[in-house]
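Design review, sub-item: ligand-bound model
Attendees: FS, YL, KQ
YL presented the inputs for the adenosine monophosphate complex:
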Amino acid sequence: MQTLGIIGGGQLARMLVLQAAALGVRCQVLDPNPDAGAGQLCQQIVADYDDIEALRALSDAVDALTYDFENVPAAALQQAKLGTKLSPGVSVLHVAQDRLKEKQLFQQLGIEVGGFHAVNSRTDLLEALDQTGYPAVLKTRRMGYDGKGQALLRQQEDLERAWQQMGGEDLILEAFITFQQEYSIIGVRNRAGEVRCYPLVQNVHEHGVLRCSRVSLAQNRRGQNSLGQNWDQLQTQAETCLHAIAEQFDYVGVLTLELFLCDGRLLANEIAPRVHNSGHWSIEAADCSQFENHLRAVLDLPLGPVTVSAEALMLNFIGTMPDAQQLLQVPGLHWHDYGKQARPGRKVGHATLCGTDLAQFRQRLQQLVSHRPFTQLWTLLQDLQ
Ligand code: AMP
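KQ shared the predicted structure:
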């Protein structure tokens, strides 16, 4: 039996552990939270991410190592000398942990991005704003996630408020992108350099947090998206970007690239060197989920198919879990409770709604949104095919 160590024990690790069980792989996680979601399902080392001895102990106990979030301190991983056991490796973390380096890498690889400027002082900020104009988005370079560590600047007053809150940190100012849609591309690369990409996922965010993700069977046929654009063209562009990034790091595992669709062009926003929230639909609506493909890559097993096998919509549960008694009556709804305490703004679970064709999917969706708390989601969903 193979064993896998996961640094980070949140919901992503939990879903990896669930899938690992099916592959006969035993997992152990390292997380400072004694009640970590993944730790409820497998052995856990309760320790800080920069505890070198604990990282070494985990490494000694397993055949392969991975991580479930990109803010694990890269310096600690390096110091713990985890070597080739760890995939993805440390080099991608140095970039994924810093929004400025990320954007610079995109440019270096010829991947289109919106305007951005490094901001280390108030003068830098004013100069950068001269270039971008309002609105613009001010973000911390490091440790931002789920809309945290960023502020939308619409006018001078916002600038003052944001500067008071974020002024002490290394920042980046981004031009505000008036995108028509948001997408992510999720790909997997193995040690031999083979790359497979799932179809583009369309995402809807609210206050910087992912609310829902949609994939359709039309994407296998490479038809058109809801804006009348050719899926083939968009998919090819996104895959080219993902390939370039994966090659750059000799990457092993699942890699995600978030994109804005703006006037027919895809602009890169950020990368996540891990399985991603926008890929959860693949558990039920792909022959081989992102979790299984990540495990296959890091454990050096053959990669699995990445085509869509159903119409699917993933809905995040944020703050609290909704009423299972009501929602489990909706046919084709797959339930995932992460075993977390309810807390405002926290991702506590998700559900994926599937249908075998568009007519059945839409009927089920009507049924789903007739239930509170999803009635208000209807307007958000209009944008999705
Ligand atoms: P991020 O943490 O960079 O993924 O940002 C979270 C969400 O905020 C994105 O998915 C977008 O919906 C929005 N956002 C971030 N940056 C920009 C930008 N430069 N222009 C417009 N919207 C943005």
